[in-house]
Specification:
Elements lengths: L2 H49 L1 H9 L4 H38 L3 H7 L2 H28 L2 H5 L5
């Protein structure tokens, strides 16, 4: 153990600490943007459903039962959660392909470091949140009294 090796060891450890700190910052920002995105989607969904309370009350007044309302909201939730996936994932893979081509990286090298599990977990989390919001909204809409919702609010 000499001073030369000790200096090299300190440099390697310093680089490792900087790399860990950088990854912590990147993952923290990613989590923050994810939370902001999910909460923004939740607010938009709840606002949209609240504004359409009269529409749901009218549908219930002409015979839409609980199962039909649940099915209606479930299909709407699938479209709301699926549309960004259908649009976003091809764009993500196109960007990744262009970056791999620019950096002369093979697909196997890329896929070894790509956070595929993290991406899948985030997609599942977003779909679960959207599904949970629609379930809660469905319960609230079913509890609404049709006459109270349909009465004229301007009177």
């Amino acid at each position: 153990y000499t001073f030369i090796f000790a200096g090299q060891y300190d440099n390697v450890m310093g680089y490792a600490i900087v790399a860990d700190a950088t990854m912590l910052i990147v993952y923290s920002l990613t989590a923050l943007f994810g939370i902001i995105g999910i909460s923004s989607a939740a607010v938009a969904i709840l606002n949209s459903l609240y504004q359409r309370r009269k529409e749901f009350a009218m549908l219930r007044s002409v015979g839409l039962d609980r199962k039909g309302l649940d099915r209606l909201l479930h299909i709407e939730g699938i479209f709301l959660g699926g549309k960004p996936l259908v649009i976003g994932l091809p764009i993500l893979f196109l960007n990744a392909t262009v970056l791999m081509w620019m950096q002369d990286v093979t697909f196997m090298e890329f896929i070894q470091v790509f956070p595929l599990l993290g991406l899948a977990a985030y997609i599942v989390l977003v779909l679960m949140v959207i599904s949970g919001i629609y379930r809660a909204a469905s319960r609230r809409i079913r509890r609404d009294i049709i006459v109270e919702v349909l009465k004229d609010e301007n009177v």
